[in-house]
Design goal:
The complex is a heterodimer. In chain A, 27% of the residues are buried. Chain A is mainly β. A 5-stranded mixed sheet of chain A has the order 9-16-15-12-13, with no helix packed on it. Helices cover 8% and strands 38% of the residues of chain A. The N and C termini of chain A lie far apart (140 Å). In chain A, β10 and β11 form a beta hairpin. Chain B has one domain. In chain B, strands 1-4-5 form a 3-stranded antiparallel sheet. Chain B has a two-stranded antiparallel sheet with strand order 2-3. In chain B, a hairpin with a 6-residue loop joins β2 and β3. In chain B, α1 packs antiparallel against α3 and α3 runs antiparallel to α4. The chains are: A mainly beta, B alpha+beta. At the A-B interface, β9 and β17 of A face α1, α2 and β5 of B. β17 of chain A pairs antiparallel with β5 of chain B, so a sheet runs across the interface.
């Protein structure tokens, strides 16, 4: 009995022992088998198995891309095959116009379609593996949507945005985002079309709520306050900051300030005859409606002084 | 001796007349300066509401009152030369404030391209030497001052 078992074990070992095949190799002469295999840049494997739902990032977020092809405007996300050592998990998959609990939390924001509805896409949360485990570091939104932007205005009944109502494409789903905005290789942006931003009308007024002025006629030495303002479709939007970028500031208290602080100054010197001081302010606006934008507001200031007539 | 007695009064009268004429010119200059200063001060204030609304320079609504007040103050400094109170002279003055431009002055016919304050006044100045010389003891000086911001 013992001998039969030993014999079976020997036979099994012989059968299962690995050995090279003795078949003829047609590429044997070109030496390809002798050369080492090219090394691939294998993605570093995680040292610790992530919890369920969290996976290792192999494709890094680059930028939000808005492209237009005829009447179709496509909102997508570009990535680069790169591992930054971070992890990610899906937070929420949102459809066109649907709100999410994570709206406003993504560092890259969430765009809006031409009709104002938010684009579809997926929220991811990024993690880094620290000594204490997986630490969340940021939230990124991968947009994936499209619309017939030009037809929206022409059609009597505005149709809903087309394509990808909620679930992004499979290729996007296999991509995991990287951790944070600082890792965004800006140079890798291929084609970034500015969002359908609304035009901003800058203005300058002497009171916080008075009419915007294109020209100002003040007496020499008179103190005035100019409030840089911004309007979108005749509706005022908050000004984040302003900076005097050109012109004679006179006796200005400051040449830059926040939106709530006016530009205070007075002019003690007169401009040359038949001339005016051209003052230009750069106004910073950053609202969800407009995005982060800079607009310039100019005003011509005529400084006058009492004089006797002949 | 006779020649001296004849010529001396004539020289005295001539000298007194010259001195009175000089004093009159000084008085006229001071009155004119008072009117000029009053108009300059009056146009050195602008309407805040109009400035905020249109950005243009419009004189303050009390420009005429300011001009009259300063005219009286400046005349007060030359009260010894005047035949009358400074306030009364200023009150009788024709002071017009053209708060916005263009404007037409009905008194002078002038057209003002900018906001303007105008003072037209008749200021009585004492000329006692002229009175002693069988002339008018009071000489009325007409003064016209126009000012606008330029």
């Amino acid at each position: 009995m013992r001998g039969r078992a030993a014999a079976a074990a020997v036979v099994a070992a012989i059968v299962l022992w690995p050995s090279s095949a003795l078949a003829w190799d047609p590429f044997r002469d070109d030496g390809r088998l002798d050369s080492p295999e090219p090394e691939r840049d294998a993605d570093p494997a995680p040292l610790i198995a992530p919890p369920p739902g969290i996976y290792y990032v192999t494709d890094t977020y680059v930028a939000d891309v808005v492209t237009s092809s005829g009447p179709v405007t496509t909102y997508s996300t570009t990535t680069v095959h790169e591992s930054t050592g971070s992890y990610a998990r899906v937070l929420d998959i949102v459809g066109t116009g649907a709100s999410s609990a994570f709206d406003g939390s993504a560092f890259n924001g969430r765009r809006a379609l031409g009709d104002g509805r938010a684009v579809a896409g997926t929220y991811y949360e990024n993690y880094v593996l620290g000594a204490g485990g997986f630490v969340p570091v940021s939230v990124v939104f991968f947009q994936d949507d499209a619309e017939l932007a030009r037809l929206l205005a022409a059609s009597p009944a505005p149709p809903a945005a087309i394509a990808s109502p909620s679930a992004p494409s499979a290729t996007t789903r296999t991509i995991a985002p990287a951790c944070c905005a600082a890792e965004r290789p800006v140079g890798a942006i291929v084609s970034r079309t500015p969002p359908p931003a609304k035009s901003i009308q800058p203005g300058l007024s002497l009171l916080p709520a008075s009419a915007s002025l294109a020209a100002l006629e003040v007496l020499r030495g008179r103190a005035v306050s100019l409030y840089p303002r911004a309007f979108v479709e005749d509706r005022e939007v908050p000004v984040r900051s302003w900076t005097l970028v050109a012109g004679d500031a006179g006796e200005a208290l400051a040449t830059t300030g926040s939106g709530s602080v006016p530009f205070r100054t007075s002019w003690r010197r007169l401009a040359p005859p038949d001339a005016a001081y051209q003052i230009v302010f750069r106004i910073e606006v950053d609202t969800p409606e407009t995005g982060h934008r800079m607009v310039d507001a100019a005003i011509a200031v005529v400084v006058r002084s009492p004089a006797l007539e002949d | 001796m006779v020649l001296t007695l004849v010529i001396a009064p004539l020289l005295f009268v001539a000298l007194a007349g010259v001195l009175q004429l000089g004093a009159l010119r000084v008085a006229v200059a001071r009155v004119r300066a008072a009117a000029d200063l009053a108009t300059l001060v009056a146009v050195n204030d602008q309407d805040d509401a109009e400035l905020a609304k249109s950005g243009s320079l419009r004189l303050s609504a009390d420009a005429a009152d300011v001009a009259r007040q300063y005219f009286a103050r400046e005349l007060e400094l030359s009260s010894s030369l005047l035949d009358g109170g400074a306030d009364a002279i200023a009150a009788a003055a024709d002071i017009a404030a053209y708060l916005s431009a263009p404007a037409y002055d009905t008194r002078t016919g002038a057209r003002y391209e900018r906001p303007t304050v105008r003072i037209a006044a008749q200021v009585p100045v004492r000329t006692p030497v002229f009175g002693a010389l069988v002339l008018r003891p009071v000489t009325t000086v007409e003064v016209l001052s126009v000012s606008s911001p330029r």
